[in-house]
Amino acid sequence: MENATKALAMAGGLLISLMILGILLLAYNGVREYQASNERNVSDNQVVEFNNQFSTYDRQDVRGSDVYSLLNRAIDYNARKSTSGITTDARESIAFEPIVIKIDFDGKINGTANPFSVDGTKRLIKLDDYEISNTNNTFDDQIRGTVDAIEGKYGQESATNLVIGITKIFISDTSSENKKKEAILSFNIASTKVTLPTSNSVTTNWNTLKTYKEDIYTYYEYVQFKRARFKCEKVEYNKETGRIVEMDFKFTGKIQ
């Protein structure tokens, strides 16, 4: 009888132990599921936050200045967070797929009707198609560096003012001496960082003024680019992460 009682006690103890173990296992699984759910929510929020940076440009009437900002954002993102990734406190390598931005000028920059050029000559925007990716960056190579150099030389405000007065400042060589004097005066008023050498010779000053012409004609294309209108024709998402990985834009032919 005593042995039977002990056996029952042992069986009861074992049953209680199994029940406690089951409860602990359920609690552990619940915590794991809760943590996983939180991680999924955080991940989803990060994807939404990331996509919002780019999806705002998914429109049919995007200003060139916004496209320019988007290109700079994509270049910065690809340099900081794609391919090589970043390292967390846990020493985990996190690398996201680089984003690709494509711009199609639809053949509208060719010929004398080029809406970005003063005289039809391509000085800044030379390609019909530009692509920004982790391995290809024709925009940064050919456009941004040139724009930065001109702004560094003249100052952004001065360069813009010179573009606004471009028809008064860079006039024909056959213009009258009075017109040339007016052009020099207009240049000096518009420019705050670049001044012409002091001289009594109008010809010398005029020749010096002409040395700035190519820079300002080049910057004119940039100003026109900022005023141009583009439409977003494609947005592609990574099927696994849900992140935007490509956006394609086409010039509408409008500059406003």
Which secondary structure elements does this structure contain, and how are they paired or packed?
Blueprint: H1 2-55, E1 62-63, H2 64-81, E2 86-87, E3 93-94, E4 100-104, E5 129-132, H3 138-154, H4 156-164, H5 166-169, H6 177-190, H7 202-210, H8 213-227, E6 228-237, E7 244-255
Parallel strand pairs: 4-7
Antiparallel strand pairs: 1-6, 2-3, 4-5, 6-7
Helix pairs in contact: 2-8, 3-4, 4-8, 6-7
Features:
alpha+beta, 14% strand, 8 helices, two-stranded antiparallel ribbon, 2 domains
What does this structure look like?
The structure is a single chain. This protein is α+β, with helices and mostly antiparallel strands. It has helices at residues 2-55, 64-81, 138-154, 156-164, 166-169, 177-190, 202-210, 213-227; strands at 62-63, 86-87, 93-94, 100-104, 129-132, 228-237, 244-255. The protein folds into 2 domains: 1-55; 63-255, no CATH class. 55% of the residues lie in helices and 14% in strands. The strands form 2 sheets. A 5-stranded mixed β-sheet has the order 1-6-7-4-5. A hairpin with a 5-residue loop joins strand 2 and strand 3 (93-94). The termini are far apart.
